[in-house]
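We append the chain.
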Amino acid sequence: MGRLPGKTDQSCPVGQGALIHALIQIFLYSNELAERGVKKMEKKNVVFTKDGAKVGVKEVSTESYTDKTQRAFVKTWNTAQER
């Protein structure tokens, strides 16, 4: 086989082994960052699935929900009565 014109036998300034090692480290670090992000989002009730992101809702007791609803209704009623 002959040589291609303009090509020399010099290798890259950075050895192929070092380049491959650097690329593997970048790949591993990016995966680690992704895992950390997923764990952090799960703490905030956000779960990523194949279908997309699902957001969880915090549990609210029936009594608490009723109290807040009644409080809002009473405030609205009182404001309407003042006019």
